[in-house]
Amino acid sequence: MIITRNWLKKYLNLDNISNDQINVALNSLGFEVDNVYDLNSLNSELVLGYVEQSKQIPDTHLKLNKVNIGTKSLQIVCGASNVDVNQFVIVAPINATIANGLTLTSKKIQNYESQGMICALNEIGINQSVINKEDQLKIYNVFDKNLDLKKYLGKDVKQIIGLDDYLFEIDLTLNRSDCLASFQILKELANYFDLEIKNYDNKFNDFKENDLDLKITISNKIEEQIKTISYSNFVLNNHLNKLDSIDDIFLKLNQISSTNNLINDLSLLSTLSTAQTHILIDLDKLKSFNLKLELINHNDKELLCLTSDNQIVNIIGLQTESKFSIDNNSKNVLNIMLNIEPNLMRKQQKLLNTSNINLQRYIKPINPNLFDLANLNLTSLLNSYNLVNKAYKVKVLKQTYKNKTEFEIKIFEINDLLGTNLTIDQIKSLFKKLDFKITNKNDLLTFNIDPNRIDISSKNDLCEEVARLYSYDNIQEVALSFTSFKKPKNLNLKLENKLTNYLIGLGFNNTKTYSLTTQIDAKHWNLFNISDFINLLSPLSNLRQTYRTSLSKSLIDTAIYNHSINNKELKLFEIADIYNLNQLKQRHLVFLTSHHIYKNSLTHQLVENNFYYNKEILESIFDLYNLDFSQIKYVNNLDVIKEIHPYINAAIYYQKQLIGFIYQLNPKFESENKLNKTFVCEINLDVLNELKNKTIEAKTLSKFQSSSRDLTIEISNDLIYQDVLLKAISDVKYITSSKVVDLYLDDKLAKNNTKALTIQFIFNDLDHQLTEAEINTEFEKIISNVKKMKVVIR
């Protein structure tokens, strides 16, 4: 990113601020200045000249020119093909030294004395790479719509075209991609030097309501990767197709080649200021106002394109195709503004094998909602060239990103983290020229964040911003101190270690999987309704873009991989944390079983994986946390994601609070991924730790013999087993335990949406041996309770 002193002077009073001070300020603010360039020192003397006569020298490509430099006329021999009369040109007089190292002397060329040099841009310090090929061998014509250049003949031309400038080349870190908009760096420097920004609000304000009915559809393949689509349009006055030299040189100093199209060049200037790219289209050249964003196979490359009636209008990141581009006769201009997932645009840049101002901004994480600012700035630039007849407001077709704009933090938290003693007034003063609004209620600070600062997503980010603005050099260094203390007892950790040992004892393998996944999978597998996902600003791949919202998908992917290498008898588990942007941290456990749960190769004995085996493991875990089993409910959910079996699944609740899920994978999904029967269970350990019963009660074992009774009932699938059981044993004495010992289904039961359960009840007492009469009396109570529920007893 390049910032120039002259550009800053348009908005800030820098009379008492040196270039070295600006350099120090930028570095202090965290913007590493890689290089500085004093353009004024590149050429000792350059003056403005006017070509009054230009004659071809016979039998040569040279021309003999009479050039007026105000106080006198010079005779200059020039070989450029475009030199001609009535041109304002850059002249290096005798004894001047120019950027290419040449010192001008009076000499004869083809027997004609040449008293100086008419200069091309690459001769006076402009990088040849930003000069159009056709212009590289031509002298430069000076133009300024607002100046009567004849009054400036013989004057320092560097001031007229902006070559008296001082450049700061800044290396931006990824989190400060917002500073690809030079307006952001302007605010940072204004805040650092405590300067008022002038001329910033001197903008166009006569916008009309936009009645253009434009539609832009998005192909399904890229729907999730298009964050923002907006557009505006202009009706233009007749216009010259020439940019002022000072603006043209400014583009070139920013390593941008001008396009020789005034409107396009002004859009590039706007992009430098706001970081929002513009796709400009001649509305009169569109046959239809129904456009489409899609991936198109173009020159054997799959490129993101804007199309109309199957014709490419714009390859995103490049200039509009000539068939639809604006020209000198364009009256109605469409301005489309997009914000696209950086990963997609990095792929686009790689395929295009190029880099330009638009692609540089598309591939970085920038505020997706810049369209209003960008449209205002572009309109103001157009209006400065008297081009605007009518300008219309922005219409937004898609807007998915919402800025996280408000954070609350106590002054103590900031000082505690940074090791400072800042007051509330001091903190407020650090942000006074930035687009932050800070209010406080006692010691609680509320920050309304600059919408462009999408890198600030937590309290820690805010503290880092305070440290940056306060300056790290002002934070006192304190030597590390080591304090010994008694290690506190951590019951939660002990239980987790016991849980880990229990699962390993059952033959499970402890796995560690990647915490990052795709944004689509994070949404799709969001079983626990986690909000405010953590998305990386610039992920290396779309496959590792978002912090996962559950552990299940990671373990299922591990199972799929193991099956692919013929490792099919699987028992896997993982304990890991789930996070979100609101400082949520949840400890989760997931375990998975696949294929046989027991296999003896000698006896060929096999035990098939099943739901109740996994449920038994789950309930052993609940027993470890000393939960009351009567408070646990398993609720089947038919409306599940396609990867989960619609019938063999349950959400698990304890005291009406969601604990987790247990389910079989959908057979279709298993078949597609060549998996055997696979069951998954994921639970929230933090909830278990909150709900666990810390009191372990030692119970006396009865010395008398227990007795059992079995009861088979037909129960509707719509009823919850725990509810039926609790009502069945209401006011029944001597029951020590109960469990389902058999489940039966046939076509008739399935047709009636019912199932047959056989429940075993165990009776015993501590004080005496129960008689058959006592047991039968209590069992009859169970039968009576069941009948009251209108449940069929088989």
Give a summary of the structure in a few sentences.
The protein has 794 residues and is α+β, with helices and mostly antiparallel strands. It has 21 helices and 38 strands.
Structure description:
With 794 residues, the protein is an alpha+beta fold. It has 5 domains: 43-161, Beta Barrel (OB fold (Dihydrolipoamide Acetyltransferase, E2P)); 203-399, 3-Layer(bba) Sandwich (Phenylalanyl-tRNA Synthetase, Chain B, domain 3), CATH 3.50.40.10; 406-474, 2-Layer Sandwich (Phenylalanyl-tRNA Synthetase, Chain B, domain 1); 491-691, Bira Bifunctional Protein, Domain 2 (BirA Bifunctional Protein, domain 2, 2-Layer Sandwich); 707-793, Ferrodoxin-fold anticodon-binding domain (Alpha-Beta Plaits, 2-Layer Sandwich), CATH 3.30.70. Helices cover 26% and strands 29% of the residues. The strands form 10 sheets. It has a 7-stranded mixed beta sheet with strand order 24-27-28-34-33-32-31, with helices on both faces. Strands 11, 13, 14, 18, 19 and 20 form a 6-stranded mixed beta sheet that branches. A 5-stranded antiparallel beta sheet has the order 5-4-3-6-9, with no helix packed on it. 31% of the residues are buried.
What's the SSE blueprint?
Elements: E1 2-4, H1 5-9, H2 19-28, E2 32-38, E3 47-56, E4 63-68, E5 73-78, E6 88-93, E7 107-109, E8 112-114, E9 116-118, H3 157-161, E10 166-171, H4 182-193, E11 207-208, E12 215-218, E13 226-236, H5 245-253, H6 262-274, E14 279-282, E15 290-298, E16 301-308, E17 311-315, E18 332-340, H7 342-352, H8 357-362, H9 371-384, E19 388-392, E20 395-399, E21 406-410, H10 411-418, H11 424-430, E22 437-441, E23 444-448, H12 459-470, H13 491-505, E24 509-510, E25 516-517, H14 519-524, E26 546-547, H15 552-564, E27 570-579, E28 585-594, E29 596-600, E30 605-608, H16 611-624, E31 632-635, E32 644-654, E33 657-665, H17 667-672, E34 678-684, H18 685-691, E35 707-716, H19 721-728, E36 735-744, H20 747-751, E37 754-763, H21 772-788, E38 792-793
Parallel strand pairs: 11-19, 12-15, 24-27
Antiparallel strand pairs: 1-10, 2-10, 3-4, 3-6, 4-5, 6-9, 7-8, 13-18, 13-19, 13-20, 14-18, 15-16, 16-17, 21-23, 22-23, 25-26, 27-28, 28-34, 29-30, 31-32, 32-33, 33-34, 35-37, 35-38, 36-37
Helix pairs in contact: 6-9
